Amino acid sequence: MDESANFAFQFEPALIEEIETFGELRSFKDGDIIMDYGKYIRMMPLVVKGTLKVLKKDDNGNEILLYYLSSSETCSMAYSCCLEEKKSEVKAIAEGDLQIIAIPHNKLDEWLCKYPSWKNYIMRSFNERFSELLKSIESIAFHKLDDRLIAYLKEKKRLSGSNLIKASHYQIADELATSRVVISRLLKILENNGKILLYRNEIKLLNNFDA
Amino acid sequence: MDESANFAFQFEPALIEEIETFGELRSFKDGDIIMDYGKYIRMMPLVVKGTLKVLKKDDNGNEILLYYLSSSETCSMAYSCCLEEKKSEVKAIAEGDLQIIAIPHNKLDEWLCKYPSWKNYIMRSFNERFSELLKSIESIAFHKLDDRLIAYLKEKKRLSGSNLIKASHYQIADELATSRVVISRLLKILENNGKILLYRNEIKLLNNFDA
DNA sequence: ATTGGTTGGTGACAAATGTTACATAGAAAG
DNA sequence: CTTTCTATGTAACATTTGTCACCAACCAAT
């Protein structure tokens, strides 16, 4: 594996060595598909750099955003999928440039009992994924679209570290599982309230956006 | 532990012995709370008999049904909560008479590497919980209330094995996170379409309910 | 039988979201 | 500069869901 992968995982040295031996560093560009519906999963991705978004689709082709994974996070759904040899129920797409370490599925199980730090990492990850899914459910079930839109923009800001969000109304509508017209309408209201400025393919969050 | 607990778990004999030694058989009645928001979790429940429903609440007190656990199932969210010493994000309530085996949290970790059948059980459980949460998200995000109501009634039928569902409109509304009036309205439409019959605290699913 | 609490039925209306249709603006390509 | 494509703005309307008000039916206790 490329030694330049300067990852922030808190593993014991012996495990890091194993990861460097058996893990495979892979790079992706914006929009690349790392995982897709119905495909068998044979590796588990550790995010080294960039962001990965995880989506769920229904039978009619509607997609909705579940959560983002960023540096040093992993998708524990992939983990349990690997062990059970199940097909993926979700899709994962690179958001911008992305680097991951792909851990082959046969190592996952081996390390679980061999390295406590690996077990802890996996368990923490399970917990985080559950939390994210619960947050997602809460958001969809209890919050109106305008709140969800604001939460979405905040998350984008957090991940990019910038007040300038690059996305079309259509993309946003997709990820929130609604229609473009509705998003345009809500964004326009936010603009009229002085919270944001709208440009083509860009949304600028103003200082009083959080207020 | 009470030896009469005739559970259907597929564990190796040595593990069953440990479960009988360290597990604690507990009985609950309808409505008893097994787990609650914000409480620390110190045991993991294996369902022996009956059904347990798992709910999520938002800040304003609205609750929504996440999924049911029935015989030989477990809540793996409890598992990861135990290990991480986190507070519960969900509430679990007995639905009718319920028997569980409570596994103390210190054994969970020990058994993971000691008994492959335990590890498999836990991993399968993680997978099932993820699936249920994803199903829940799909249902809320993509399906209208009438579809969700029908799915809810079907699930009730599956769990009880009966066409007669005992629940008030108010209870159903709660679990689907809507209001009583809305549920009454939709149920009445189903009745007018010859799918169900309505009684006080009871709903009878007719033969063409699934059609 | 009377009372009081719970449950269910229903009309009327409000609010949120979805849909359709069309106009305009900007970017990109020729 | 035109053409073409994509992104956005907006009106008008439909549908879905939520809310309020009130009544009637049912049940249990006195």
UniProtKB/TrEMBL annotation, chains A, B:
Record's GO cellular component terms: cytosol
Pfam families attached to this UniProt entry: cNMP_binding, HTH_Crp_2
Residues of the Cyclic nucleotide-binding domain: 7-129
Signal peptide stretch: none
GO molecular function, one term: DNA-binding transcription factor activity
Family matches, as CDD domains: CAP_ED
UniProt-listed InterPro entries: cNMP-bd_dom, cNMP-bd_dom_sf, Env_Response_Regulators, HTH_CRP, RmlC-like_jellyroll, WH-like_DNA-bd_sf, WH_DNA-bd_sf
SUPFAM superfamilies: cAMP-binding domain-like, Winged helix' DNA-binding domain
Keywords: DNA-binding, Transcription, Transcription regulation
The protein's name in its UniProt record: CRP/FNR family transcriptional regulator, anaerobic regulatory protein
Classification of source organism: Bacteria, Pseudomonadati, Bacteroidota, Sphingobacteriia, Sphingobacteriales
